[in-house]
Amino acid sequence: MVFVVNLARVVFAPLVGQFVVVFDVGEATAGSIATLVWLGSALPRLPAGWLLTRVPRHRVVLGTGVALTVASAFTAAADSVVTVAAGALLMGLSSGVYFVAASPLVSELYPGRVGRAVGIHGTASQVAAVVAAPVVTLALFVSWRVAFVGIGVAAFLVTLALVATTRHADVPTVGVGERNLRDGIRREWRLIAVGVVILGLTGFVWQGLFNFYELYMRTKGLSPSMAKNSLTVVFLAGVPAFLFSGWLAHRLPHVPYVLGIVAAFAASVLLLTTTTGLVPVLAVTALVGYVIHSLFPAMDTFLLDTLPDETRGSAYAAYSGVMMLVQAGGSTAVGVLVERGVAYGDVFAAFAVGLCVLVVVLGGLRLAGRLPGTARGASAPQVPGPADDDAHLETGGTPGDRNRP
């Protein structure tokens, strides 16, 4: 299910160029479609967190399967850019609810093998990001609509399989849980703000970059097919990044490690803007993919290790939702700037410089002892225990979906 759900989000990135041609729209409009997917993924997270205190998680997961099936069919039948945008929002909404419900459900289903179970879940999600561009390439031999038909059919079949499975499984039910979301958010707002600033702004740059990666690669002289499938390189590099960075995040000081990754991402984007030639561009593309996907488990570990038990769920849900709202605008921002005549390379270089400034400011605050999250052991290396390996995001590109029960 997570494979299909994440594919529904990332499939829009390799289709941005197709939407420009088919609907005769500019980059700003096409970028707004990609933004709506991630906006939709952000909006339902806090309401879903409240819902999960009252409805069993597996029923919510099944509901998202039904919703994704309907949303995919709606998008496949879209006859205008407006209806495509509406379909993108609906597909994003279903994914947002899914990730808030599924991550804790996996933890509850396999309490003795949490790390392994969540790792399989996250890997399946990342594989979806890897195959998104090839899937679109194959679909375009017929029509872009085929991609959404396939996602809808897959979501329907997987949902049926889950219904059959839950009938014969001992599925855990939700306990009382955290009832007062507002109190947890109020107590941890400073740490939430740090997380939103770091991953929200970095994700803003990442969203703008990967959703326009195909069009940007064309400006560097790559063929249309090679430009489209360069996204495969980006996401393929993220598979080992998730595994290795999650391991490092338990052993290195959290804040310096996170800020180091942000600085490395900014440097890799700057390098990409100055690189030419097929092989060098693909090499730097792999570097960009590896670095950005290293940030997601590192940031997740930082927050989940720092937040106390009594506020972890509510604070993390708030961080996840707000952070994704911030980053969702990256695609629209890039589209608007490019449509006004700014070159892709100049846009991404400016964004990267902004991230460098962010690292310097936050690094200075940490040295001055003014950065929240460094006083309760979040900066100290952690020795992982058996259950510590479950601090992973569901990926694709996209951070902030890990939420413990």
Describe the structure.
- By secondary structure, the protein is mostly helical.
- Helices cover 74% and strands 0% of the residues.
- The protein has 18 helices and no strands.
- Helix 14 packs antiparallel against helix 18.
- The two termini are 20 Å apart.
- The C terminus is likely disordered.
Topology:
Blueprint: H1 2-10, H2 16-22, H3 27-42, H4 45-51, H5 57-76, H6 81-109, H7 114-139, H8 145-167, H9 181-187, H10 189-211, H11 213-219, H12 224-236, H13 238-249, H14 254-274, H15 278-306, H16 312-328, H17 330-339, H18 344-367
Keywords:
74% helix; 18 helices; mainly alpha; globular; disordered C terminus; 405 residues
Query: Roughly what is the average pLDDT, rounded to an integer?
Result: 82
**Roughly how many Å is the radius of gyration?**
20 Å
Percentage of residues in helical conformation? over 70%
Taking the sheet with the most strands, its summary is: none
Order of helices and strands: HHHHHHHHHHHHHHHHHH
Tell the overall outline: globular
Structural class: mainly alpha
**Tally of helical runs:** 18
Record field, number of beta strands: 0
**Low-pLDDT stretches:** 174-178, 376-405
Portion in strands: under 5%
> Could you tell me how far the N terminus lies from the C terminus, measured between alpha carbons in angstroms?
20 Å
